[in-house]
Amino acid sequence: MKYCVDTKENDNWYIGTEKFNPQAIDKSETVMFQGNGYLGIRAAPEEKSLCEKRDMFVAGTFDAFKDEVTELPNLPDILNIRVKINQQLFSLSAGTIQNYQKYLNLKDGELIHKFDWLIADQKISFKFSRFISMSDKHLFVSKVEIISKQNDVNVQIVSGIDGQVSNSGTQHLVEGDKRLFDDKIMQFKEQTQQSGIKFIFNVEHKSYIDEVLLNNKSNIKMNRRQIFDNYDVDLMKNQKFTFVKYANVYTSIDGDTEEDDISDVSIQDMKKNCLFNYAELLNKSIRAWNTEIWQRSLVEIKADDNKPQVAVNFARYQLAANTPPDSRMNIGSKGLTGEGYKGHTFWDTEIFMMPYFIFTMPEVARNLLRYRYLGLDGARKKAKSNGYQGAQFPWESAWPTDGEMTPPWGSVDIVTGKPMKVLSGFLEQHVTSDVVIAVMEYLYATEDKKFAEEMGYEIILDAAKFWNSRLEWNDEQKYFEIKNVIGPDEYKEHVNNNAFTNFTAYWCIQKAISIVGLLKNSEPEIYDELNYKLNLDDIYQDWLAKVDLIYLPKANDNNVIPEDDTYLQKPVIAVDKYQSTGGHAKIFKDYDLKEVDKLQVTKQADVLLLIYLFEDMFNKKIEKANWDYYEPKTTHDSSLSLATHAILASDLHLEKIAYKYFERACEVDLGTHLGKVTQGLHMGATGGIWNMVVEGFGGLRVLDSKLRIEPNLPKSWNSLQYQINWHNSLVRVLIDKNKLKISVMGEGIKFINHDKIYQVQANSKLELPISDEVTVEKENDNN
């Protein structure tokens, strides 16, 4: 694997670089992002540079500008530290840089940036360090250490809060009060223009020479949207000047603080944290990372090359750093790492990130699903506005009650020169099924009856109501079909009977029928409550009458399932030169979307995604035939595609191909290509890394509510160990060349391995030899 960052053979948590490359600044800013789920800051340097993209976001603080859809506002810059040495402004673009190193410790989230700066007969050693606290969601701490290696020097520092930022030119924030507390704490207030969310930013500085605290008096300057403090220190040769910046961010929607109290609470919090030094606060954060994240999401890969371990550590770090702790918020497809997709949530969460949380941190998965429950009213409004019943979940969502947030217009058509209309918000309706898929997987893994009764059943039943109203009767064929949609393959618009959409709609209605039967028999009070809300008595009979008449695309004589009604009749072209590592869309250099729509070209896994998610519905012959057919036709222009292909290839024992896709998927963000990195990471792809390791090579799968563990360890790996939660038990799985070892703490589990059912008793272990046997093919009446 080729990464854009350096790694260390003896340190699986290190990503960094020893070369200053101005052309790659935006890439490193994204990859070395820091966050705690509430607050996120790109890894721009403290000093400003021409190539940078300085973004800071707080989860859930959406605001709209004029006729645009809502987005996360780029917040005032609390990172900035401007340094002058003997009146010379420090900049990496001036002078000579030696011993350069910038790296992120994935284990504790600390970013280090250090080098020697040579200019005007001076040699100055700089070391910048910073972290966002995992133990205090509001807290950011940074420090700069400066040593003059040759002469006595004068050091001047300007640092504070800079509100002169925007979202690519759009200004969401209205300036409020600026003031100084106790002659040392700077406070800056702003408010979003449309949503009215209030922000409070506080900064306090401390400075030291050789660990001795200086008693600097504040020299505050206030400009429009800015408040800064100025420091002037004479530094002798080889003395160390240390400048520490404490900052915090509070909002009026935090939920843990009354709106009228946030100013006082934020000041008290600042005073409390300033009693501790940088190292003490970092250690508090490290303990939170260890107990809340790493001890609960164990994945260990033993191999000659440590890059797979670095990749899965990177993925787990980014998932933790970008997942809000508040169930009113969700994970944006770019997380908090950039302005891409405006901070909006897509199906990426449910299909590609949710498995990680379900199996490692089920309470986080519950929060992410509660977000969808809180969005039911918006989903109902969307369905009603489109002439349907039930809940039609938005393709892009922001604040859960806001409903659909997909922008109406996209990039420019290379043929017409005009902006292309974005149809996903109207036609990409499978997201409603995707939410139900995540709900069911969560319930299978956790048996969380309370969640099912309070939220889960209602989500599933209302989704089924939508799909039931979406069905259209084909009088000629005598079946119900779903016309005019976009499936996961977004290169095919206005298609009829997309396989993924039809199968998942059918499956949703089946689940709803089962839930009604269960509740009528065992939980009549809950049924009565849901019946009052959703009129289940009326719709249930309709489900029963329709469900077996829904058209499910059948495999043809070559065992290929048609992606939609017309896909297999379209011309075939070679797509090799258009295949990407996710998100590059090279094909649009030669075709526009209307032309691609007329070709057998697939953007990302569609039929193959269906087979991966519903493996028990298809036999191995169909799985292999569809792999052979669709894999060569897929461009992987979505970063979500590669992981699915890696897992399916592993299932099919195509080891070299599986590992090739695994490497490419790990390189979506970590790779050497620049791509669209300024816009942020591909969070679905980070979830895909865990999925490939644990579900693919580790063989973990949930099939019709049952746990299967059937590993396919790559030949280049010596062992793989991972940990999951299943039915109130903590399960540790160890795979090496010869054996599969299952250790259980808790109530005990049952699992399937090569069609045999094994049981591991409470607090015990089971060891099985690794079998080379290929899973027995299963016949299915539908295929």
Automatic annotation (TrEMBL):
A GO molecular function held by the record: hydrolase activity, hydrolyzing O-glycosyl compounds
Matching SUPFAM superfamilies: Galactose mutarotase-like, Six-hairpin glycosidases
Keywords: Glycosyltransferase, Transferase
One Pfam family hit: Glyco_hydro_65m
GO BP terms: carbohydrate metabolic process
Domain Glycoside hydrolase family 65 central catalytic residues, every copy: 315-691
The UniProt record lists the keyword Transferase: yes
InterPro entries xrefs: 6-hairpin_glycosidase_sf (IPR008928), 6hp_glycosidase-like_sf (IPR012341), Gal_mutarotase_sf_dom (IPR011013), GH65_N (IPR037018), Glyco_hydro_65_C (IPR005194), Glyco_hydro_65_M (IPR005195), Glyco_hydro_65_N (IPR005196), Malt_Pase/Glycosyl_Hdrlase (IPR017045)
Segments forming domain Glycoside hydrolase family 65 N-terminal: 17-252
Binding site for substrate: W347, D348, K603, Q604
Catalytic residues, chain numbering: E490 (proton donor)
Family: Belongs to the glycosyl hydrolase 65 family.
Protein name, as recorded: Family 65 glycosyl hydrolase
Originating organism: Companilactobacillus alimentarius DSM 20249
